[in-house]
Design brief:
The chain is an alpha+beta fold. It contains 5 helices and 4 strands.
Length: 127
């Protein structure tokens, strides 16, 4: 049976900004094109996917129906495309802007636990 979704997103359900974004996408996903998987859920098993949990925490991941993985801003491009808002992120495909968007996202992702008040100050510094 063919998958009914265009992308499965692996998100941190304990991240306030992440859950706000996922909530927005859930409300927009009228045709069920996105499968949502919370990596903070007690039943989530990263090892079953062959990816360490820490890697899922480092940045957002998406899995396509054919099994390929996408990460970072590319996940958002595909999520927004799935809900009919691809035009909002289309500029992030333009050379120069793509690299800038990727850089900004990597910086945010690397520091999101600290910036959202979710880490021990002794073990979490801005990078």
């Amino acid at each position: 049976m063919a998958p009914t979704h265009e992308i499965e997103v692996f998100y941190d359900g304990l991240c306030p900004l992440c859950t706000r974004e996922i909530g927005f996408l859930r409300r927009r996903d009228k045709k069920w094109r996105i499968r949502f998987t919370d990596i903070a859920a007690s039943d989530f098993d990263a090892s079953a996917l062959g990816i360490p949990h820490a890697e899922f925490m480092d940045q957002i991941h998406g899995r396509l129906p054919d099994g390929r993985w996408v990460k970072g801003v590319e996940v958002f491009r595909r999520l927004y495309g799935a809900v009919g808002l691809g035009w909002l992120l289309a500029p992030t495909r333009v050379p120069g802007l793509k690299q800038l968007a990727d850089l900004v996202y990597r910086r945010w992702a690397k520091n999101r636990l600290r910036l959202t008040g979710r880490c021990d100050p002794a073990g979490c510094e801005l990078n």
